[in-house]
Design goal:
By secondary structure, the chain is an alpha+beta fold. The chain folds into three domains: 107 residues, Butyryl-Coa Dehydrogenase, subunit A, domain 1; 109 residues, Butyryl-CoA Dehydrogenase, subunit A, domain 2 (Beta Barrel); 145 residues, Up-down Bundle (Butyryl-CoA Dehydrogenase, subunit A, domain 3). Helix content is 49%, strand content 14%. Strand 2 and strand 3 form a beta hairpin. The protein is globular.
């Protein structure tokens, strides 16, 4: 069985369908199980699995376009999906440290069952390990396998995950840190429903508790000495930054479309004509179009380099993620400001777009980390 790459029209139709339910998902915070089922049925969850495993073999440009389209409809759904696409883009590379048989099994699961996978890295005390430090989650030897104990927070898509890639440290005399692949049907896993956030409320990024969870030996897919994790991987950084940026660019494009429709429909009695007829709104909408056009160029450029086998240095991918997401935030903020009370009313989608797009600043690499790393490099540190 080989899945066909779904055409753009399918993504657009799904995005419209998801958008119709997005407000209710936002209010309830319920996980979008129906949306994930629709993506699964359309073959979108195996999009980046290699063709030799029956997947779509999609590269970054197509993947980012698909994530952006779904992000415009319902961004929590797009985020859950983006994480699965990212993992399959990385773990099946020839230079991946993952055991080939393990990676192939996960890939086939995505194709045949639409199984979701995501990394579980952040912890209550440590925060994100990208800023350094040893995780508190422990992997201890148990014969030929491992036992994992610890707590992860912000586990996006937790209720629907088939696999978690858990970042942990070993109990060895000289601890290694890294990734262990944990099937979510293993005993000892408990999801604590803690997610109640400003935006992306349907992402169900709950806490996951691991209590002596058994993991087979070959599922310790990437354990290294701590110092070996200091240098980011250019390929993974390019994919991650592009998909995350594309998602929030999609949110901004949805906000821009709504704003234009609002300006066309709103006819104040004092004006006797639509707000869209006023030059100041032409200027405002034009400025947002400029920012979105810059975003499109940046995303296309980063994807093209990566798909061409030349992913840029991690710093450059961070620049693109930061610039695109800040542009997206500026677009939505401008629309909300100019709409006045209508822009902040919960009966309109713009206030939800504003809350969702602000979440872009939380995803790694965060703005201060991008700028500080660039500054150190400029000083030769």
């Amino acid at each position: 069985m080989t899945i066909a790459v779904p055409p753009a029209a399918v993504a657009c139709a799904l995005a419209e369908r998801f958008a119709a339910e997005a407000s209710e998902l936002d209010r309830s915070g319920a996980f979008p199980h129906a949306n994930i089922a629709a993506l699964r049925a359309a073959g979108f969850l195996g999009l980046t699995v290699p063709r030799r495993l029956g997947g779509g073999g999609a590269r970054l440009a197509l993947s980012a376009e698909a994530v952006g389209r779904i992000g415009a409809g319902e961004p929590a759904t797009a985020l859950v999906r983006a994480m699965t696409l990212l993992h399959h883009a990385v773990i099946h590379r020839d230079d991946s440290p993952w055991p080939r048989l393990v990676a192939d099994a996960v890939g086939r699961d995505a194709v045949t069952r639409g199984t979701l996978i995501n990394a579980l890295r952040v912890e209550p005390e440590l925060g994100t390990p990208a800023r350094g430090g040893l995780p508190a989650t422990i992997a201890r030897r148990d014969g030929a396998g491992w036992r994992i104990t610890g707590r992860k927070i912000y586990a996006t898509g937790a209720p629907a995950l088939g696999y978690g890639v858990v970042f942990a440290r070993t109990d060895e005399a000289e601890p290694r840190i890294g990734k262990l692949l944990v099937p979510f049907d293993a005993p000892g896993i408990r999801i604590v429903e803690t997610w109640d956030h400003l935006g992306l409320r349907a992402s169900a990024s709950h806490d996951v508790v691991f209590e002596d969870v058994p993991v087979s030996g070959d599922h310790a897919v990437d354990l290294r000495p701590p110092e070996a994790w200091r240098k980011p991987d250019s390929w993974q950084q390019a994919w991650s930054c592009t998909l995350i940026a594309a998602l929030y660019d999609g949110v901004a494009r949805a906000a821009q479309a709504w704003f234009i429709g609002f300006l066309r429909a709103r006819v104040p009695g004092s004006l006797g004509a639509p707000l869209a007829s006023l030059p100041r709104f032409h200027d405002a909408v034009g400025e947002c179009e400029r920012l979105l056009a810059v975003n499109a160029r940046l995303l296309a450029g980063l994807a093209a380099e990566t798909d061409g086998g030349r992913p840029p240095p991690p710093q450059d991918s961070g620049f693109v993620k930061l610039t695109v997401t800040e542009n997206a935030i500026a677009v939505v903020q401008q629309a909300a400001e100019l709409c006045g009370n209508a822009g902040l009313s919960r009966r309109n989608p713009l206030e939800r777009h504003l809350r969702d797009v602000l979440c872009a600043r939380i995803h790694w690499p965060q703005g201060d980390a991008v700028r500080a790393a660039a500054g150190r490099a400029a000083f030769g540190a």
